[in-house]
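Supplementary Methods. Inverse-folding protocol.

Structures were first reduced to a discrete structure-token string of length 379. This string, shown here, constituted the complete conditioning input.
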């Protein structure tokens, strides 16, 4: 077995926070029934990445008197599920929707187009969790996937290298998925563990470990405790610790209190300039200010599999949230693979195709498995 490490070098002049990415790969097959390659490490097994390439400029959350908070609240109100459902239920398909669907057609209706472009190449699957494999629910601790979806993901992983890429804590999402033969990239890709080579997943039994924000862990925990205290007076607010990032859920918060909640979060983060605040689906996300996201995680995993510069690989990324756009953008820039957005409504996206809901994701995965089985029989 060969152990290889990726170390992110620390630049003491720019910051006192050091970053380290550790990768452990084996020469044995990482996926059951799937080909894989070890990450080549030049110069004795170490890859050094300049620190300036991973640090991100802190985001200004104040924006002169909280204007950015107000803008977020207005945006959230406009895109809230209640208002979207209302507009969908009572409005016929508009010209805008028709145009959007033409530019981002259903991955099911264009399935043959997708697989024809994949013939003779290696498909690598990347799947978001919430809103993609499981429906969005009021209580994030009850975002369970169906057994049918689990079977579809398990079957896909038998034929294609497969990763779950989520903003959730890696251990949390594994407790939902419960499949050992996958990569799990939690905390928006800041916590990556490779598939267990055994049928049962055990902590520490991994093929790859990547944690580029490990030095931020004490800070994240400190902010988590502070936010728990600050938000407990707002009914319905929930702060979730995703290890290397935090989520402040307000799906169950009265709309009139959204601004108050966002302001409390902003006040806390004013003391932590090395953390940044972004917006997701009914959630505020708090992350370290490093240049690492789901797109970086996708690139890292492709490199770990030996496909960094390969022309014979087709990455397929399926996701529903703004954070998935980083991965869609990477695929666009590579001119390789397909991004598939899960959404019932038109929205700006770098994805090539669309699916409306998790049930369609399940149907797409099943068709992909059927196509692969048929192609193997014809060989």
């Amino acid at each position: 077995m060969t152990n290889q490490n990726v170390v992110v070098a620390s630049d003491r002049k720019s910051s006192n926070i050091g970053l380290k990415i550790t990768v452990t790969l084996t020469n044995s097959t990482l996926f059951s029934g799937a080909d894989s390659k070890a990450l080549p490490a030049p110069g004795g097994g170490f890859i050094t990445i300049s620190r300036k390439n991973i640090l991100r400029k802190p985001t200004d959350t104040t924006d002169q008197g909280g204007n950015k908070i107000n803008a977020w609240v207005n945006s959230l109100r406009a895109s809230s599920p209640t208002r979207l459902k209302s507009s969908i239920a009572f409005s016929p398909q508009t010209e805008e929707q028709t145009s959007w669907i033409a530019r981002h057609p259903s991955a099911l209706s264009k399935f043959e187009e997708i697989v024809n472009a994949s013939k003779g190449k290696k498909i690598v699957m990347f799947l978001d969790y919430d809103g993609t494999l499981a429906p969005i629910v009021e209580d994030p601790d009850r975002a369970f996937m169906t057994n049918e979806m689990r079977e579809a993901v398990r079957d896909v992983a038998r034929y294609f290298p497969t990763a779950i890429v989520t903003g959730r804590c890696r251990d949390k999402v594994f407790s939902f998925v419960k499949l050992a033969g996958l990569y799990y990239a939690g905390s928006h890709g800041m916590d990556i563990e490779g598939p267990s080579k055994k049928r049962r997943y055990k902590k520490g039994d991994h093929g790859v470990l990547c944690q580029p924000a490990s030095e931020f862990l004490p800070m994240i925990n400190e902010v988590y405790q502070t936010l728990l205290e600050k938000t407990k007076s707002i009914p319905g607010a929930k702060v979730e610790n995703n290890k290397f990032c935090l989520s402040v859920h307000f799906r169950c918060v009265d709309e009139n209190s959204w601004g108050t909640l966002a302001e409390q979060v902003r006040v806390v983060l004013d003391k932590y300039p090395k953390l940044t605040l972004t917006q997701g689906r009914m959630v505020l996300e708090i992350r370290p200010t490093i240049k690492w996201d789901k797109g970086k995680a996708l690139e890292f995993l492709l490199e770990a599999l030996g496909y960094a510069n390969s022309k014979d690989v087709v990455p397929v990324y399926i996701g529903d949230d703004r954070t998935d756009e980083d991965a869609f953008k990477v695929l666009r820039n590579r001119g390789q693979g397909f991004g598939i957005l899960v959404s019932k409504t038109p929205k700006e996206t770098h994805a090539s195709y669309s699916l409306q809901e998790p049930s369609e994701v399940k149907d797409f995965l099943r068709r992909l498995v059927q196509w692969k089985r048929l192609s193997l029989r014809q060989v």
